[in-house]
Amino acid sequence: MIARASGGGGLAAALTVLSGWAFDVPILRRIVPGQPPMVVLTAIGILMLATALLLGTGSGASRPVRRAGRWIAAAAAAVGIGGILQYLLPLPVRLDDWVQRLAFGPLKPGSGMALATAASIAAVAVGLLFQDAPRRWLRDLGTLATLWGFVIAAAGVLGYAYGLGALHQAGPFSRMALVTAVTLGVLAVGALFSRPTRPWIAPVLCAGEAGSPTRHLLPAVVVAPLVLGWLQLQAVRSDLIEAETGTALLMAVLTLWLAALVVRVARNIDRRAVAERRLRETLHGMNEALERRVAARTQELAEAQDALVQAQKMEAIGQLTGGVAHDFNNLLTIIRSSTDFLRRPDLPEERRRRYLDAVSDTVERAAKLTAQLLAFARRQALKPAVFDAGERIRGIAQMLDSLTGARIRIVTTLAEGPCAVRADPVQFETALVNLAVNARDAMNGEGTLTIELTCGRPKPSIRGHAGSPSPFVAVSVSDTGSGIVKEQLTRIFEPFFTTKEVGKGTGLGLSQVIGFAKQSGGDVDVASVVGRGSTFTLYLPQAEAGIGGEKPAPEPEGQALEDGDQCILVVEDNVEIGRFCTQILHDLGYSTVLTQTAEAALAEIEAVPFRFDAVFSDVVMPGMGGIELAKRLRALHPEMPVVLTSGYSHVLAGNDAHGFEFVRKPYSAEEVRKVLREAVAAKPKVRPAPTET
């Protein structure tokens, strides 16, 4: 704004003077009555400076416009340099006189462009020419040149204001008109303020802490000495005071004036420091209050979150308890009704067998339900083994054909080589069956079921859990069914949560899948698009083929005992279950010894060595547990088979069965017979060979 106003003022002054010379109007040549006129060459130089200033400071000026402004500034610099050269070199023709003749007529003797005028025009033109130079030292040179042009013009103005002949009647200022000095000073100020980021201008125009005091102090520092100096000269010329006295008074007044300014600045600084200190104290208090509020709010949020988590836990426990109670009450209803009918003495044999079969089937269903719950809780006792996942999928594919129906096409895509997995093969097959059943129901019995096996894949991040770069075997089960809505994806693995109709699903299939995967060191990922189907990917740690497989049993030495006359040591702390177990073993043809603690079992074995063919022990017992007993027997009597049994044990859940045979409760007589026969066959007790007499 200042630059454009300065340029407009300079342009108006130059055009006014040129009009005065063109139309021979003396008042227009000098503007200020009674003062020397501005010559034509000076007016042309000022016109060029004003035009260059306007073109270089226009808002949104294009590059060609700015380039034109620089060319005009170069022409103004040439005018100023030409005016200087006519004083330095003995030229036959004066430039100002030649230009004056073109516009009006010859210059009068003693008139023309002053040397100070030419120097000021050249300096301001150089400043305009270098104000946008690419190099910083050129820009700084342009600023210094503009300041020099302003100092020359200001000296001329002061010469007229103070009546000093040396600054407007002699030397280089002998021909500088008042209107010329004022106009050049205005153009120099406009050139300085045209680039507000320059070091000399930024403190004056900035809106920060330095701008306000600078704008307040500059008028006092600049105007006061000028006014006091003018008053001192007028007093001396009027013979009111002598020159020495006036100079002393001027120095004293200026000293007091500057001291007052220093005191004022110091007071302002002190007030600002006090205000800043109070502000810091206030901010510190506010910060402490904010920290207290944040801490209190954080505590409230933590308590609210704990309450929410507790409520969610109680809701989950309630849902789980309700589902378990519902299913077990249904099973207990069948068992109780069957036992009531079995008590009737006149019950026909056919119906008796039917009720016995119902009780047996119900027990199997209850055991399966318990196994699914333990699988979800990752607390089931697994029997891991290294097997080829591709072979298992090929073996189960035919069974899935009959399970899913004829209208569902099953496509299997297996890896070229073997994909070894270390996991429980029975639980692995159960997980695939559960996924296939869910896919069948999602497709309403018609569509395509794809099972894809991939080896060596890293496990990605699933549901916020970190991934793993280790190799995993990925089994993907995809369907073309209805898909799962986004709101239900986070709940599908919850036990007893199902999207199926009442009576068509228990909501435990996916719970078994994710529990088995997590307990085996893997995970399950799911991707679904509503209307296009779902893909469940089961990740299991990959193993090297042949590592951890079953080792063949060593051949026994000597003659093995017959199946009959075998004795089993039963270790069970529950008396009723112990008696029931010994009865089963008696019915199977075994003789038994029952102990209620592991310590008593060790005493029986140490008392009569080679008496027992196997040990059948519970896991959870007071004192020494079944696993510790088995490990102790493995160290003391490695030839003695040990079979463990339990309904649930966190030790078994975390570390498999520690290499021992295992039977889950509730067990049947057939399961006990089979596992004991295999255990005794693997490590048969041998008799020493008869010696010859």
Automatic annotation (TrEMBL):
Which reaction(s) are listed as its catalytic activity? ATP + protein L-histidine = ADP + protein N-phospho-L-histidine
Lineage top rank: taxon: Bacteria
Note the Gene3D superfamilies from the entry.
Answer: 1.10.287.130, 3.40.50.2300, Histidine kinase-like ATPase, C-terminal domain
Q: Which InterPro entries match?
A: CheY-like_superfamily, HATPase_C_sf, HATPase_dom, His_kinase_dom, HisK_dim/P_dom, HisK_dim/P_sf, Sig_transdc_His_kin-like_C, Sig_transdc_resp-reg_receiver
Question: Coiled-coil intervals in this record?
Answer: 287-314
Gene Ontology terms for molecular function: phosphorelay sensor kinase activity
In Swiss-Prot or TrEMBL terms, this protein is called histidine kinase
